[in-house]
Every structure is written in structure tokens, then in C-alpha cells.
Design a protein that fits this description.
The chain is α+β, with helices and mostly antiparallel strands and about 160 residues long. The chain has helices spanning about 1-10, 45-60, 65-70, 105-120, 145-150; strands at about 20-25, 30-35, 75, 80-90, 90-100. The chain has one domain: Dynein light chain 2a, cytoplasmic (Beta-Lactamase, 2-Layer Sandwich).
């Protein structure tokens, strides 16, 4: 599976996207695939991205529309930020996340990332499935546990 994903990202990532970081995440925050030059991108980032994604997806439900058509999440300040796109692989939800710096045209980057996500959904591979029954990442989590989990991110 890792080799299939590596081949996919090596061949399908366009010239405009090649310098950015990519994460493919399960709903529980586990990183299925990571392509990054930045050592700071770790499992803590995966947990934050999926928690944020789940919160944004829940907010979309208030709009009385199918959330899958609405949900794509981005946060940027000028030329740096991230873009989260839900992808369906083997009938399971995953998140493709692009973390970018020094991007002169974020709109073009997002369009190419959406195309990449569509191509990824066409890929027939067995991706790691989530173990356990919890649908949400932060079910029954205490504040102290969250503080401990993300303490290493304070100095980024």
C-alpha cells in the first residue's frame, strides 16, 4: 500500500504542488501516507487536522445540505496555509491535506489539489482501516489528555 501511494504521489503531483507537504489521514488522525520535507509534520498534526475536519463537517450539517458537497477546509495567510479535502477510499472517509508555504497562487493550488483528490479516489488500493468503534477522534477525552497530547506543538 505504501509503495502504491508513493507511486501515486510521485506521478500525479503537478509541478505547482511538488514543493508542498501531503498527508493522507484516517478519520482518527492516523497518518496513512506522508510526503513532506518538514520534520515538524507529525502525528500531532494529523490529530489536529482530523479534529478540525470533524468540527467543520459538523458545522456544515447546519446548512441543511449534504455536507460532502460543501466540506473542503482551508486556512491560509497569504502564501502559506493548509487545505483539507475529504476523499473516499474503499467506502471509507479519509482526509487529503496539503500544507503549503511560499504559494503565489493559492487558488490554482487548491484546484490542482482537488484534481489530485479525485484521482486518488480512482486509485484501487487497500488502505489501512481504523480499528475500534469510535467515529470521532475526541470521544470522552479529558482536557488534561489533550494538553499532554499537543504539548510538543507549543514551540512550533
Amino acid at each position: 500500500m505504501q509503495q502504491s501511494l508513493k507511486t501515486f504521489f510521485d506521478t500525479k503531483v503537478t509541478k505547482n504542488l511538488k514543493d508542498h507537504s501531503f498527508l493522507l489521514l484516517r478519520e482518527d488522525g492516523h497518518i496513512i501516507y506522508k510526503k513532506s520535507h518538514d520534520a515538524k509534520i507529525s502525528h500531532e498534526v494529523g490529530a489536529l487536522v482530523t479534529g478540525l475536519s470533524q468540527a467543520a463537517s459538523a458545522l456544515c450539517k447546519f446548512l441543511d445540505k449534504d455536507e460532502s458537497d460543501l466540506f473542503r477546509f482551508s486556512s491560509e495567510s497569504g502564501e502559506k496555509g493548509f487545505y483539507i479535502i475529504p476523499v473516499c477510499l474503499n467506502k471509507n472517509q479519509y482526509y487529503l491535506t496539503v500544507i503549503f508555504k511560499f504559494e503565489l497562487n493559492p487558488s490554482l493550488m487548491k484546484m490542482e489539489a482537488r484534481n489530485l483528490a479525485r484521482n486518488l479516489e480512482q486509485l484501487e488500493i487497500n488502505v489501512e482501516q481504523r480499528k475500534g468503534s469510535s467515529k470521532f477522534l475526541f470521544d470522552n477525552l479529558k482536557d488534561e489528555e489533550v494538553d499532554r497530547l499537543f504539548a510538543s506543538l507549543e514551540n512550533l
